[in-house]
From TrEMBL:
<dbReference type="GO" id="GO:0005615">
    <property type="term" value="C:extracellular space"/>
</dbReference>
<dbReference type="Pfam" id="PF00246">
    <property type="entry name" value="Peptidase_M14"/>
</dbReference>
<keyword id="KW-0378">Hydrolase</keyword>
<dbReference type="GO" id="GO:0004181">
    <property type="term" value="F:metallocarboxypeptidase activity"/>
</dbReference>
<dbReference type="InterPro" id="IPR050753">
    <property type="entry name" value="Peptidase_M14_domain"/>
</dbReference>
<comment type="similarity">
    <text>Belongs to the peptidase M14 family.</text>
</comment>
<dbReference type="GO" id="GO:0016485">
    <property type="term" value="P:protein processing"/>
</dbReference>
<keyword id="KW-0645">Protease</keyword>
<feature type="domain" description="Peptidase M14">
    <location>
        <begin position="1"/>
        <end position="122"/>
    </location>
</feature>
<dbReference type="InterPro" id="IPR000834">
    <property type="entry name" value="Peptidase_M14"/>
</dbReference>
<dbReference type="GO" id="GO:0006518">
    <property type="term" value="P:peptide metabolic process"/>
</dbReference>
<keyword id="KW-0121">Carboxypeptidase</keyword>
<dbReference type="GO" id="GO:0008270">
    <property type="term" value="F:zinc ion binding"/>
</dbReference>
<feature type="active site" description="Proton donor/acceptor">
    <location>
        <position position="92"/>
    </location>
</feature>
<protein>
    <submittedName>
        <fullName>CBPD Carboxypeptidase</fullName>
    </submittedName>
</protein>
């Protein structure tokens, strides 16, 4: 896990594991949507999620192109965009895939304004 808003494409023509910006035809829209979410999140907007074992990982403005972060062949985000014209971003909301119950209220507080800002983009 991490704390970042990721946008298409997750797959790249070279399938290099990381570092390849795979731009979609709607790249500007996806960047805008990802930034709309990230800019309202207290951790995500810093671009420094500080996840255990990945302390040096950073994301400018709290967003990333999926393939630039890591290549995912056959991912749902790309499939929905290509085959259903669905403008979907992936939100990584926590370093921990299964946060303990005691942390859920804080996770909600961290994401509430971001979620509302994202919904307003409709």
């Amino acid at each position: 896990g991490s704390v970042v808003a990721s946008y298409p494409y997750d797959d790249s023509p070279t399938h290099k594991p990381t570092g390849v910006y795979s731009k979609s035809a709607d790249d500007e829209v996806f960047r805008y949507l990802a930034k709309a979410y990230a800019s309202h999140h207290p951790i995500m907007r810093t671009g420094k999620p500080n996840c255990p074992g990945e302390e040096r990982e950073t994301f400018q403005d709290g967003i990333t192109n999926g393939a630039q972060w890591y290549d995912v062949e056959g991912g749902m985000q790309d499939y929905n965009y290509v085959w259903a014209n669905c403008f979907e971003i992936t939100l990584e909301l926590s370093c921990c895939k299964y946060p303990p119950t005691s942390e859920l209220q804080q996770e909600w507080e961290n994401n509430r304004d971001s979620l509302l800002a994202f919904i307003e983009q409709v």
